[in-house]
Amino acid sequence: MYILGISAFYHDSAACILKNGEIIAAAQEERFTRKKHDSGFPNLAIEFCIKQANIRPSEIDNIVFYEKPFLKFERLLETYLAYAPKGFSSFAMAMPIWIKDKLFQKTALIKEFNKVLDKDINWNDRLLFSEHHLSHAASAFYPSPFERAAVLTIDGVGEWTTTSVAIGDGSDLKVLKEIHFPHSLGLLYSAFTYYTGFKVNSGEYKVMGLAPYGEPRFADLIFENLIKLNSDGSFQLDMSYFEFATGLTMTNKKFDKLFGGPARVSETQLTQREMDLAASIQKVTQEIILKIAKNIAKETGEKNLCLAGGVALNCVANGILTREKIFEKIWIQPAAGDAGGALGAALSSWHLHKNKKRTITSKQDSMKGCFLGPKFKDDEIEGEFKACGAKYNRLNDDELIDKVASEIANQKAVGWAQGRMEFGPRALGGRSIIADPRSPTIQKQLNLKVKYRESFRPFAPSVLVEDVNDWFEHQNDSPYMLLVANVKHDKRRIMTDKENALFGIEKLNIPRSSVPAITHVDYSARIQTVHADTNPRYHSLISKFKEKTGFPILVNTSFNVRGEPIVCSPTDAFKCFMGTELDILVFENYILLKDEQDLSLIENYEEQYELD
Amino acid sequence: MMDFLKEMWHFLRVRKKLWLAPLIVIMIMLGGLLIFVEGSVLAPFIYSIF
């Protein structure tokens, strides 16, 4: 039995297919259309899923949409009514779109299925709708390695819900309680994303990366004015400071007055104030998540916790939650944002609608390392490279691993694509840019000359799981790069008094450990543990690098430039390789050196993508 | 359209939100009117109402 899950029409459209409850394939539409956070109908992702499952469209038993449009419309109407006459401009903008398109989403979906799949099938009978936060909760619990767990979902907003607590037990998943719009931790964080001059829905991780440069001097102000945190972890926002419920911005003049000035204009100089604001909202978020988690543990007595929703991508908060040991084990859905809703929708239908039993087959989880996207065969790779005019060589596995490890040790930046593409926002060694973590200059070099992004942005380490305890204050697996932990003391470099006195962005240029490229200014690192069973080739590469250098770590960042979706195909990879200062491109067993390429193929890549 | 109306009615009943029905009807009629006259000679007159 095949179930297709889809998320679409808000941001990060995606599709996923299950075969008898097993995840066969999942991918975000942006990877195929090359449009970041593409919100359109995911026809290419659906086509990929069907091809990967090797089935005809008629074999799909159900298609499940990740949220309920009527419920969302109800929230919009009631919100506008509650705030009327305020919010008329937003109302006038939103309603025509709803009346023309969104309210008739079922009809629109069926039209698309007829176009993309098979017009002779009555899709109306096969189409189901899940609730947004139930989809998130299902994506967090069902693939987890736990028989029982408490499930916490936190994001901006779904239909009404912004935060939910559920209990998963075997194949059952029951929502216990919810916090409703407009009281939203995700939207509070997004308000500060907006206020610090970044794009809402994509700049949140920049705020998180900026936070260690600042001091949380506004945290008390936030707690005293913006959010009332109750003893059970529930919270209410003071909406007089926010505009998002009715307006076209996140914050208002009262908010500006509270924090002593207007929002930073996008792409202007970052100051210590933005860093302090980032540190403050990060601290507030952490405190709230901890309080919620403590209360869940107390109320439910559960030993395990599963997390999903956009806020679950806040890996600094996740790291603290892990270290606080409120729960024995924590599992976080790697595609915690809306893309993962496609997966959760399909899983909730399998277990809750069809009442199918859940069997836990792996000690780790059932996400298959999150490598659920397309993989390319040799003839496809050669065909695409030839069409691009690329000059390439094919090496066998041993030669390739040895060559790439040596080149990385020689400070070369490598575009590394192999196996199936990752599902979710993180590159985990399937479509990554990798480099030497020992280099004190590689962070700046990668940020400015390869990724074309802000210099303050940190890079993450991929570390062999066998060695993680030697390098980081972290005991458990972190295969999805969703936890932040500190570099161990014996690997750190002791700062001089002068260096300690530096403020903000000045801290960036001071190496802080023997692996400075992945050590953030507060000694933290967003760890990815690499496992031989789920990621064998990448594991071999890091092992070879360790053999040559003694360091079981590589710098790992997503294979893209700022504003570009992560590369999918050999053509995408070649374009990115030629448009940036990457030295080497590896796609499966094919290796391309920049020095050997036709330089006339270089395009101005930096300006091809809209800034995120 | 009939399917849509049936589903909406069912939704409002389940959610005990029948009081939203008149509002939705008015909005759909106005929205429909806007879409219908889009590009026609009537458009400027209709838009001026809003």
Structure description:
The complex is a heterodimer of chains A (612) and B (50). Helix content of chain A is 36%, strand content 18%. Chain A has 612 residues and is of the alpha/beta class. With 50 residues, chain B is mainly α. Chain B is 74% helix and 0% strand. The longest helix of chain B is centred in the middle third of the chain and has 17 residues. Chain B is elongated. The chains are: A alpha/beta (612), B mainly alpha (50). At the A-B interface, helix 3 and helix 4 of A face helix 1 and helix 2 of B.
Strand order of the largest sheet of chain A: 13-21-20-14-15-19-16-18-17
- The percent range for helix content of chain A is 25-40%
How confident overall, as mean pLDDT of chain A?
95
Low-confidence runs of chain A: none
Structure summary, number of beta strands of chain B? 0
Written as H for each helix and E for each strand, in order along the chain, the element string of chain B is HHH
Please report which band the strand proportion of chain A falls in: under 5%, 5-15%, 15-25%, 25-35%, 35-45% or over 45%: 15-25%
Largest interface: A-B, 17 and 18 residues
Top CATH class of the largest domain in chain A? Alpha Beta
- Termini separation of chain B comes to 26 Å
- How does the major sheet of chain A shape up? 9 strands, mixed
Helix content of chain B: over 70%
Largest sheet of chain B: none
Oligomer: heterodimer
The number of domains of chain A = 3
CATH fold title of the largest domain in chain A = DHBP synthase
